[in-house]
UniProtKB/TrEMBL annotation:
It holds the Pfam family Alpha-amylase. Gene3D superfamilies: Glycosidases, Golgi alpha-mannosidase II, Immunoglobulins. InterPro entries: GH (IPR017853), GH13_cat_dom (IPR006047), Glyco_hydro_b (IPR013780), Ig-like_fold (IPR013783). PANTHER family: GLYCOGEN DEBRANCHING ENZYME. GO terms for molecular function: hydrolase activity. Keywords: Hydrolase. This is Alpha-amylase family glycosyl hydrolase. The keyword Transport does not apply. Residues 138-466 form the Glycosyl hydrolase family 13 catalytic domain.
Amino acid sequence: MIFQTRAGDYRKMGTEQCADGVTFTFQCPKELACAVVLFEKKTGKQAAKIDVLPQYRVGSVRSVTIYPLKAEKYYYCYEIEGKRVRDPYGERVIGREKWGDTERTLDDALLSGFKKEGFDWSEDVSVEIPANEMVMYKLHVRGFSMDGRGRNKGTFAAVMDRLSYLKELGITTLECMPVYEFEELMENGRLNYWGYAPSDYFAVKSSYASQKDADWEFKSLILETHKQQMELIMEMHFVPEQTAGAIIEILRYWVMEYHVDGFKLLGAGLPIAEIAKDPYLTGTKIFYEKFPYDLKEENYGNIYVYNDDFLYPARKMLNHLGGDMVEYTEVMKRQQDGGHSVNYIANSNTFTLADVFSYNEKHNGDNGEENLDGNNWNYSTNYGVEGATRRQFVKKIREKQMRNAMAMLCLARGIPLIWSGDEIGNSQNGNNNAYCQDNRIGWVNWKNEGRYEEYTEFVRELLQFRKEHPILFSEKPFQMSDYKRTGYPDLSYHSSEAWISDVKGNARAVGVMYSESYAKEEDTEETFLYIGYNFYMGLQVFALPKLPKGKHWYQIMDTAQMCPFFKEPRLLKNNSYEAFGQTISILVGR
């Protein structure tokens, strides 16, 4: 094949397919010789090397259109001063199609490929779930589906097969750990399972696909997620070498090309204000650990504060490890100025929820770093036995604590985030940093589904209860006053005596009452919620405020029970109730 060249379009880096060929645009210092090298897709052999002439240059950007060239028949790379390099803007990486392929070397994946054109987005509709209605679920595409039943394990297709399960659970928003191309082989022989490393940010991870076209399979997952009225958030980790302009260009690409709904951003010194304000991204949800205060004051509705501010107060209170009731009640009702808060008690870089109550210490020895990696401050407790046990007493208190933790998460203001597998008691054997564990430590154990069926149902009921009671996720700040003149404040604290707050640092119990009229239409019936948090080991009496004439208190949930939500509400005849030690109860006044 004899190829010809003409000047390309310098405005867009990477490749662009046109009617008769392909435009290649890349960086190369003006004094260096460079070329585009083509390889036959069928044979893998070099087909041509086309020099990029000096006149095809603006500054240090080279752009050339090569024709006649059918993209679907070739792979390519660039050659700069005799050294072959992969296109950093390439939309496919050739050579990493098999996950963890130790038969290849780190230099084998030097070629880039072209994306498959023509994906049909015609049925796609932007979901735009309001922040106060969101429930997040974080997963690792491979680990989510490797250990259990089902087809296409470890792929986007397997996640797609589970969307109906997640929808039924009450999830609105998926957060996917890195799904763009990264090198999973590390020089020390271990696997970079999580994917936080220098990456090919414009290419979908080909080994996460069940078919050869990873880009189409990921687009299909996003399309199906939107059909289920759910969102998909991409986790993006940027190394310090990435420039601000490149980062914004990458994020725009995934929004425009893949219709993703948001990004959880990781990395120091990111241009977070510029990202949030970028005109192409103001409709995209941006999650980050901390935002500049002036950005929050400008009230950009797309910023989401995502950090462990909820995790520590909740774990300390649950496990009696220096918990502070003032601190906990503050994070329970917190609202970020100009932004939204994400709450979690377990995440990928912590213990799983089950392990929070099964291990005193981290057990990261399998990572090969002499247990020196991972967080040392876990605020966890094993309740007498380190790890798995057959002791029924220990197992029951751990399961009750899991119910308490999930209740705390789902009943607090802010966006609840569930780490994948926590709804079925998944364990990582005490490993709180499973970054290199592509095995049963890092995989979700779906064989737990049967054993934890009642717990999963409890999570589902909690999320449904949350959805039915907007006062729990109202965007209006709690004023703790009767500003509507209904006779009741929007939020109030109680203890063994009604209307007398016992919220002090060393307290271990509090009754939290919500007047639901503050989150409802004016003409609806006034109802009340009362949540009793008893973190004491023993019984605690909660006094209940007197309700308007004709209304009564009913208990509907008690984490002391294996199936906490009662089939029938229990009428409380007295203006108090007694809570078992280490339990959370829900009462409704109607």
